[in-house]
Amino acid sequence: MMTLVYLMINGLQIGSIYSLVALGYSMVYGIVKLVNFAHGDVIMVGAYTTWYLVSRFSVPAWIAALVSVAVCSVLGMLIEKIAYKPLRKSGRLSLLVTAIGVSLLLQNAMQLLFSANPRMFTNIFTGTMTIGERQFSNATAATIAVSVVIMAGLTLLVKKTKIGKAMRTVSEDNETAQLMGINVNHTISFTFALGSGLAAVGAVFYCCSYSQIQPTMGSMLGLKAFVAAVLGGIGSLPGAMTGGLCIGIAESLTKGYVSSQLTDAVVFGILIVVLLVKPSGIFGRPHNEKV
Amino acid sequence: MLKVENMNVYYGSIHAVKNVSFEVAQGEIVTLIGANGAGKSTILKTVSGLLRSKGGKISFMGEDISSYETYKLAQKGLSHVPEGRRIFQQLVVEENLEMGGYIQTKEKNKDTVQDVYRHFPRVKERKRQIAGTLSGGEQQMLALGRSMMCLPRLVMMDEPSMGLAPVLVQQIFDIIRELNKAGVTILLVEQNARMALSVAHRGYVLETGKIAMQADAKDLLNNNEVKKAYLGG
Prior knowledge:
The complex is a heterodimer of chains A (about 290) and B (about 230). Chain A is built from 11 helices and 4 strands, in the order ααααβββααααβααα. Chain A has helices at about 1-30, 40-55, 60-85, 90-115, 140-160, 160-170, 175-180, 185-210, 215-230, 235-260, 265-275; strands at about 120, 130, 135, 210-215.
């Protein structure tokens, strides 16, 4: 019984990270209908930024983390402006291919800068705590707690603030939003910045638990978060949060009860099942509009 | 107030709007009538900057707005109620109105909302409801209310009567009159030509992308050709 509790705690930890990343996928998809495959590599850039600042300049870790959030936000906006915006009126396939291109570009640029060798990331949250008879790293508690706070904040932002409402209107009907005087370009930039900033937070927490970073680390993490977004219903924020937690728990239970070799198979198996059974995901709404 | 000169709009190789010029003066209700596909909605979308005219000039309050981005026009006082209402289905009614007043201050919006509720008590009753659950007529009222929120000088309305029961059509046109009396200039696009001409001061008849006729609304109502083609004999 206690094993289950421990596994759940681990699942919640990695699940929170998936949720943070999945939110970026979902928000961007909601607003520009693009699966931003470069999103995973933004996580990688966030991890490298933090690592670089801490290891080369001995910047205090929490400042490094904040800087990397800022760097990723700007990077997200730049990617949108340079790569996606010129294609806004072209087909979705062109956008998708471009996203994959941006992803490759980021990975290779990082290999050029820092080589393909893995680097060691030092845990920011040192120390442990004991739950029952097992020890957990403080990083576990910090990951879960900070994620909860961030997700609550994000929900409030989207529901209550002017920019949040603008995001929702642009994602529902871009043209009519413009007729209301909403600057769609600003709203899209803001969404990319927000999503990429969350990815950076995810990156920092991920690295605290899985200490190794390398230029291709973003693809698997990104892909799993994408599965989480699809499971929850892509475009839906509560969906991304729930989806992330579900994937994390599924992974952790597989590791604990079946085999750690099978975790990836289970995650992608979930994707296949969702696509077969309910392609719109848990919170996704099938389209039915009244005219 | 609004002056369109030599508007030409193409959809690919199709020449949808051909050299159209028209004017709307301060305080007027002007209507563009014509059959389906005559180019009425295209004209409104082009004024709003959602589509672009090849050559020609669009000016609003003396300013050339031909190359303005759409979102800037609300600030100038030009509002557009799009065809099919296009309310934000997933937002609640109140939020729809709030978004209509996106460019205005919170304090102004508080006053304007009361104004909208006075015109549309039905909208007030439903203010906390998800907008997508409203009936067609309620959605149209919300769309009109939403356009009032930016305190426009000129409202362009695209088929406000489409798909509504006759009682509601009457109500919508009464409100158009009221708005106009309150000082808002109106450019009305309608297939319901009889209704449109009965509220309007002047009208333009569009045929396959061209202006075929223009006159005072009363004269158009009595014109034999217009009667035959648009008023059912």
